[in-house]
Amino acid sequence: MKILVTGTNGFLGRALFGQLKKTSYTLFPIVRKKINTEDIECDIGNASNLLTVLNYYQPDIIINCAAKVDFTDNSMTGQYNVNAVAPTIFSYWCVENNAYLIQVSGSIVNGNTTTLFSNSSIESATSYYGKTKLLADRAIRLSKCDHAIIRFGGIFGEGGPDHLGVNRAINQARVGKIPTIIAKGKAMRNYIHVQDAAKLLVYCLDNRIIGTHYSGNHQSISISQMIYDICSIYLNNANPKRQSGVESVDQVVKVSSNFPKTAPFKKALQNFR
Q1: What are phi and psi of 263, to 5 degrees?
Q2: What is the DSSP annotation of the chain?
Q3: For residue 62, is pLDDT > 90?
Q4: Beta bridge partners of 242
Q5: Is the pLDDT of residue 72 over 80?
Q6: pLDDT value at residue 151
Q7: 179 FRET partner, CA 20 to 30 A, in 15, 46, 160, 168?
Q8: Do residues 5 and 65 lie in contact, with contact meaning Cβ atoms separated by under 8 Å?
Q9: Contact present, 140 and 150 (Cβ < 8 Å)
């Protein structure tokens, strides 16, 4: 089986590709800028280039981890082409070529006021990034290709992108900087470690999971507890800093019953250091 994986130089894509390399699948890692000798360079935001790559490699499965993340209005065209147009092309190519698509999405398609994310949640993205991801999800469903859309609530781990606060705290703690808890930090989260997220995508691949599914950790903990756990692991149990501010609201993902259990936050962070 031939698998085309996009975004393999990114946070999740890199972890996924590392796990897929242990399998017998034939892999085609697609990146925007080539770093490794095995990389296949392609700007998936360029429809012509993308179709050329698809038609040349003829994958049986596409796993789309690529995304252009920007919470400003500075790259709206780029976000639209990468986040919305490319997945649409993938889906219709899969229809024509009897291929299977796994699309990495997020709870961001439900906006930022939802407290419990599930297939019952209203799709009401507020950021432009979220809107482009939602356009992709809807286009994939409309295409009727064989697909799994996996909506993650948040993915953490060493070297993770700083737009997720817990990753910023991890990255600070790794270099000896004490992270900060805003307000009381009582809000609950169930972020999933990047390696568990990658394992989940392999599980979806191996079991040909179909439909839209939400994924996160099976255990929810407070933001405050996450920061204390980070300090315990990286800073010899140092106390976090405190800062006054607005208390966050709960944002918890209802994990699909199809998915295997994941390691709790602290254990996952310890296991994958």
Answers
A1: -75, 145
A2: -EEEEE-TTSHHHHHHHHHHTTSS-EEEEEESS--STT-EE--TTSHHHHHHHHHHH--SEEEE------SSSTTHHHHIIIIIIHHHHHHHHHHHHT-EEEEEEEGGGG-SS-SEESTTS-----SHHHHHHHHHHHHHHHHT-EEEEEEES-EE-TT--TTSHHHHHHHHHHTTPPPEEETT---EE--EEHHHHHHHHHHHHHHT--EEEEE--SS-EEHHHHHHHHHHHHSTTPPPEEE--PPPPPBEE---TTSPP---HHHHHHHT-
A3: yes
A4: 181
A5: no
A6: 98
A7: 15
A8: yes
A9: no
Nearest to 199 by CA among 260, 243, 145: 260
Q: Return the structure tokens found at 180.
A: 């900060």
Distance of CA 7 to the CA centre of its chain: 11
Side chain identity at 246, as an amino acid letter?
Answer: V
pLDDT averaged over the chain? 96
C-alpha distances in angstroms, 139 versus 28, 82, 90, 92?
A: 24, 14, 10, 9
Mean pLDDT of the 47-73 span: 94
DSSP bridge pairs for 243: 182
Residue 161 in tokens: 């992108």
- Read off the pTM: 0.96
The residue assigned the tokens 């149990």 is 237
Distance separating alpha carbons of residues 78 and 178, to the nearest angstrom: 35
How many whole angstroms separate alpha carbon 76 and alpha carbon 248?
27
Which pLDDT does position 71 carry in this prediction? 79
pLDDT for 151-195, tens place per residue?
999 999 999 999 999 999 999 999 999 999 999 999 999 999 999
